[in-house]
Design brief:
Strand order of the largest sheet: 4-3-5-1-6-7-2-8
CATH superfamily of the largest domain: Alkaline Phosphatase, subunit A
Number of domains: 2
Order of helices and strands: HEHEHHHEEHEHHEHEEHHEEEHHEHH
Strand content: 15-25%
Oligomer: single chain
Radius of gyration: 23 Å
Helix content: 25-40%
Largest sheet: 8 strands, mixed
Structural class: alpha/beta
Length: 481
């Protein structure tokens, strides 16, 4: 008994010390939106009237990154990258696949460090095999398909109150499912309303909330990578209406954080999981596929209203950055690197490029692609493209691709765009500084031969470092080219 008492006292002291250390760490609120293009936000240059006032305010209170990219432009695998800091082939989550057993995750590391963890929506996409790591999980159907601002406000307050009661710092991941399809007012939304009555999947259901602002086709700005024809413009207007509702969800979460009294000790990170769900964006490796409107607010640590135009950051870096910000070591086996130094105003000369991937998509089809991007140029390797295989993904549903296919019958320029989207080429090279919407593939341009050779080398070196199983195929295809 005399030996037992000191052990108990020691364990009690260690527990109290760990709890004290956790209490001093900053809280984390990670806010994500689905399928929102980087330039659909006012703070990133969108001219559509009053489109994202809440996100714009957040940007004015923190730092926004000009050159930020997700690692894979598909919802579940990009979240697996965020949660592991690993490239997809190193986590096992190539597409809609679980993270491999034994691969550590961000949420587990934060939970083990004493954080109260909460998840709003996307419960089937954010490490679904690690459900026990979350103290609180709210399904999208309880948030009206992950789209109702009032419910996000309610559940955010509930989660933060639970953390306060437990005496723990909190990590809340709040995922708005707008502007993912179905867009507000679309035929797809009406079809989804009917399916919801029978749908038991916790990612979907609960109906769709109304909106306070409907954007008309003549009120929006068309992306230059899409043809400006009536049905396309109509669908883009529906998309922007959903963008505005997503902004209201962001505002609701931030308001609940403010009401909790914890905002001054909370790092808030906002980004989209990838580009808009229309052709030449989502589920691809073009700049408009992976570029994301990344904003970080960290009172007392980050200068307000800063616009970082010097560094390229990537989704692979999210996990190590969050862990570094709260004083925890990186996960074992991580491929990413913390950019906390950049957040606090330092310069990182190594952040000159990002690498992005596609493997299998929701249909389980393999459309393997790899890309390396710098601020000016971008190179894409389409392993799947053979002149016969056709590309098919969710962005071709709805009005836009049908309208493009119909217009292609009488418009040669649109016909060429449709053909390129469907069949692609083995390699693509773009001068994004002068052609931000990837309208001219320069892969055969002799004036850029040296640039293309350099980017092929960058890609090869990346694939070697990351132990990419596509390397051998890449080498063979490039030699053939």
């Amino acid at each position: 008994m005399s030996r037992f008492i000191p052990v108990v006292l020691l364990m009690t002291c260690l527990t109290l010390a760990a709890n004290s250390l956790a209490a001093e760490r900053p809280n984390i609120v990670l806010i994500t939106v689905d399928d929102m293009n980087w330039d659909s936000i006012g703070a990133f240059g969108c001219p559509v009237d009053d489109i994202t006032p809440n996100i714009d305010r957040l940007a004015s209170e923190g730092v926004r990154f000009e050159h930020a990219h997700v690692t894979i432009a598909i919802c579940q695998p990009t979240r697996a990258v965020w949660m592991t800091g690993r490239y997809p082939h190193n986590s096992g989550a190539l597409g809609f696949d679980p993270i491999k057993r034994g691969v550590p995750t961000l949420v587990e590391a934060l939970r083990d460090a004493g954080y109260y963890t909460g998840l709003l929506a996307k419960t089937g996409h954010v490490v679904p095999t690690r459900a026990r790591a979350w103290n609180q999980r709210i399904a999208a159907k309880d948030l009206r398909n992950g789209r109702e601002p009032e419910r996000y406000h309610h559940y955010t307050k509930e989660c933060l109150a639970s953390a306060e009661e437990a005496g723990q710092p909190f990590f809340l991941m709040a995922n708005a499912q707008d502007p993912h399809r179905p867009f507000y007012g679309s035929d797809q939304e009406e079809q989804s309303r009917k399916r919801d009555r029978k749908n038991k999947n916790d990612q979907y259901g609960g109906g769709f909330p109304d909106v306070r602002r409907v954007y008309k086709p003549d009120e929006i700005t068309m992306p230059a990578f899409l043809p400006d024809i009536p049905d396309v413009r109509k669908e883009v207007a529906e998309y922007f209406t959903s963008v505005h509702r997503a902004d209201e969800v962001v505002g609701a979460v931030l308001q609940a954080l403010k009401e909790s009294g914890k905002a001054d000790n909370t790092l808030v990170m906002f980004l989209s999981d990838h580009g808009m769900p229309l052709p030449f964006a989502k589920t691809n490796c073009w700049r408009n596929s992976t570029r994301t409107p990344w904003i970080v607010r960290w009172p007392g640590q980050i200068e307000s209203g800063r616009h970082d135009t010097s560094h390229m950051i990537s989704g692979i870096d999210l996990c190590p950055t969050v862990l570094a910000a709260v004083g925890l070591p990186p996960l074992e086996g991580t491929d990413g690197k913390s950019f906390v130094d950049v957040l606090t105003g330092k310069t990182d000369p190594g952040r000159t490029s990002v690498f992005t991937h596609i493997n299998t998509i929701a249909s389980k089809r393999d459309y393997s692609m790899r890309s390396v991007q710098e601020p000016r140029f971008g190179y894409i390797y389409n392993a799947w493209s053979d002149g016969e295989t056709t590309f098919r993904n969710e962005s071709q549903s709805g009005r836009t691709f049908k309208a493009m296919t119909e217009a292609a019958k009488s418009d040669d320029a649109i016909a060429a765009r449709v053909k390129h989207f469907v069949y692609r080429t083995k390699e693509e090279f773009y001068d994004y500084a002068n052609d931000p919407d990837a309208l001219r593939n320069l892969i055969d341009d002799p004036d850029h031969a040296a640039d293309i050779a350099r980017f092929r080398l960058l890609m090869r070196e990346h694939m070697q470092r990351a132990k990419d199983p596509l390397l051998k195929r890449f080498n063979g295809d490039v030699e053939a080219q």
